[in-house]
């Protein structure tokens, strides 16, 4: 046991000298490995940051809330033919009945999409014709998770009397009003009507531009001045206790089935839409990006493994005489094998360290841009170290075994 430690240290010193003697080749291999690890660690960290941001942002867009909406068109197979089924709209009377009869401890709001191509005007200023106008009640701000930066929310009296008041998004306010004009209290033109601005929503940013290009008016006002023959209403529910979320969904579906007069054996002709459904859909799409990034990293590491094996094979050939001398003075085949494996492992781990540092830098840069925090991904660091070790062992074993099997007599005569 006493002789093993000095022998190991000697092999490490020999490996370091060999790496320094072939600095250019070793450096190139180190950076090839580093690039593969950087691709894996950096991109996977960045994707984790994006997932976290999406989950956080969409949870704020109606945290712990769900909605009852009209179900999309269904296709039914009848014999050899397909038949399209349009489920009935959710009427205002049904939505009002649900809001009045839903006794579960939750906030209930009713809303309807008026237009998605509206131009809003203030004096000579006007927006592009891409503003979303919604008719809502006094609870919509609470169930949707929107934050009012200036002004206030609608009152129940304003909803009941169909007042000409509105709450606008940050982008709408920025386009209509100069920096020295307070939007609250100003009158703007929505279609052919004048509405007094009572509030401005906090800006969400370009990732959620639809929220910043929004204009809310009382739902009673929307029904009176923006009648739509085929209008379907949206019922949003936010339980007071997030732990009762699933129970609230079941209670809501049961009550609305009664309101729609559905028989027990009939399936629901409406849909329950969870607040996190959109974020989950986006996260599922991001998984494809994760797979692509992983494949890129693995392919790069495969190339690095080939490069490392090539360097080690060349090193064995160049150091044939050295190997013969070491064997002639008593070095065992296992000692020679250990020496070359250590050299391969050192190159692999150096590449891993560089790659992990670059990956952490890139990943945290994306995280900070997305509004996240600086993190140290211990899982990805551990994975990077293990991958580098695996690449080193696989790439170094064949050259090391070749070196260990060299005939010392042939080696001493090699030039």
Keywords:
single chain, 415 residues, 2 domains, 18% strand, alpha+beta, 14 helices, two-stranded antiparallel ribbon, 55% helix
Explain how this protein is built.
It contains 14 helices and 14 strands. It folds into two domains: 4-58 and 281-412, no CATH class; 66-274, no CATH class. The chain has helices at residues 4-21, 23-60, 92-101, 140-144, 156-160, 170-176, 209-212, 219-225, 245-259, 277-318, 320-328, 333-369, 378-404, 408-412, and strands at 66-70, 74-78, 81-85, 106-118, 120-122, 125-126, 131-136, 148-151, 165-168, 187-190, 193-201, 214-218, 234-239, 270-274. The protein is elongated, with a radius of gyration of 34 Å. α10 (277-318) runs parallel beside α13 (378-404). The strands form two sheets. Strands 1, 4, 5, 6, 7, 8, 9, 10, 11, 12, 13 and 14 form a twelve-stranded mixed sheet that branches. The chain is α+β, with helices and mostly antiparallel strands and 415 residues long.
Write the topology of this structure.
Blueprint lengths: L3 H18 L1 H38 L5 E5 L3 E5 L2 E5 L6 H10 L4 E13 L1 E3 L2 E2 L4 E6 L3 H5 L3 E4 L4 H5 L4 E4 L1 H7 L10 E4 L2 E9 L7 H4 L1 E5 H7 L8 E6 L5 H15 L10 E5 L2 H42 L1 H9 L4 H37 L8 H27 L3 H5 L3
Parallel strand pairs: 7-12, 9-11
Antiparallel strand pairs: 1-13, 1-14, 2-3, 4-7, 4-13, 5-6, 5-10, 8-11, 9-12, 10-11
Helix pairs in contact: 1-12, 2-10, 2-12, 2-13, 3-9, 10-12, 10-13, 12-13
